[in-house]
Amino acid sequence: KLFEPQLTTPRNVASPPRLGDMAFRVLLVACTAAVASASNLRGGTALTSNPIRRVVTMLQDMTKKIEEEKKRDTELYDKFMCYCKTGAGDLKISIDAAEIKMPAVTSALQESTSQKAQLELDLGQHTSDRSDAAAAIAEATALREKEAAVYAKDSGDYKTNVAALGKAIELISSGAGGSFLQTTAAASIRRLTIDMDLSAADRDIMSSFLAQGQGYTPQSGQITGILKEMKDTMEKDLDDVTSTENTSKATYEGLVAAKEKEIAANSKSIEEKTARVGQVGIDIETQKEDLADTSASYAEDKKFAADLDSNCATKQVEWDVVQKTRAEETLAIAETIKILNDDDALDLFKTTLPSSSLLQVQETGKFVRRGALKALRAAGSRDTRLDFISLALHGKKVNFD
Questions:
Q1: Pairwise CA distance, residues 369 & 367, whole Å
Q2: Residue 14: helix, strand or coil by DSSP?
Q3: Whole-model pTM?
């Protein structure tokens, strides 16, 4: 989100010191460093440069470091302020996009949820339909088996009776009616005479013929005529049951074919919709995550947009303080370097260090401090800040703030 540079804040940013006080503090540090540098000289050790020059070099290095920090902080600040100018527009684009996307994703999620519920209902219906079709085939098969068994019995009886009638007609027509009455076919004819739908006169004639022995010689034409009628009726009945059987068989086969097709269609639908249920389930989870992420990002952008103006104004104030304080530090260091490069500063340290050359100093730190104190007293200044330096050289704890 917002790129917040970590600016290097100089000391006492909240309450920057006055220019004169800051220069004085830098000068005090420089003096203390010079004295410490001189006090480090031990018996007979020669210095390659005088203490003042070392302090000046240190202050120049400080100036370079301050400039480097200024350059780095300026780059970060510029980036921050650039975002302050462009960030509001970017946030508005993101917020507007989220406001459009969230209702769309919510609608898609509702549609996917409804679609999944409908697919699950369809799966239940397809499963039920497939089971019903399988049950219908089983029921039709059982009925077909019963019908086939009935047809086999009836057609067998019809064929047997037609054969018996045909034999009777043949024997009676040939004049062997008496011998016919001694065959098993005569028994079948007697049963048919009772069971078949005959006129009373025809039944009486047939009964008289079948009841007489070989001595009975009625007109053969009348008997054969009745038998032929019976045979024609029997053949017609056989044709009827055969036709019914063929129709039932064709109906069964059509039913089985239709139900098998229905089973195949339901099985295919179950397979396809099961896969779709899985995919829609994945889509629902994806849409839920997308909605949650978009909502969270939307809330974060709204909050950030509300805080952006305040954050940018605060950063501007902080940057102004940083710039002012850094400028004061840089000016104070420059003034200190100017003072230390002055001939009076060199004379002061020569007085403090009585040797003719700083390169030949062999005094101890304690002697150097005494010399510095003597020089401060000789200055005769009533400046209280010089009193603070004297107290510091005496080893007193002084608060320069």
A1: 5
A2: coil
A3: 0.48
